[in-house]
Amino acid sequence: MIVIAGPAADAVRAACQLAGRLRLDPAAIRLAASTAMPDVSTELIVHGWQATDLAEQLRRLRTGPTIVVVATDEQGGEEAHHRWAAGIVAALAPDQLWLVVDATQKPTDSYALLSGTVGFDALIITGAARTTSPASVWQLHTPIAMLEGRPATAGSWAVLLIDKLNALA
User: Which of 40, 80, 125, 138 has the most neighbouring CB atoms within 10 Å?
Assistant: First the structure.
């Protein structure tokens, strides 16, 4: 199981992109959110017991890779929501935990989010094309799995950075 944590819209988009790359049915992507979300046709994971049940069911059935999105941009108390999200992730006990990071934010802000959560395996970078310093996310010292919806390869970074240098010329 891969859990993608981040702002709902960006995390769902990344989950769909990853599902496409892994040739998984995008309809099988699960969503955990502490409140109801518009335009969601799937059953939401809201409680820790639902996450535990899902994890047990997936391990028992051995259905192959599953992607679960944990929305981190809920309304209400930020500290309480981070505790909720951490509890859901703990109940899911994923094989991989990826965090969506917006490159337009300061790396120190992203680091604060990272330091409050344990065990991120990789980052999914969004907004890199909209910032003047896309490589600033390297300061987070966490592997980067996806860059703007594609695998984060040396080639994808080179294209992005060359485009930024051309814009300065």
Answer: 125
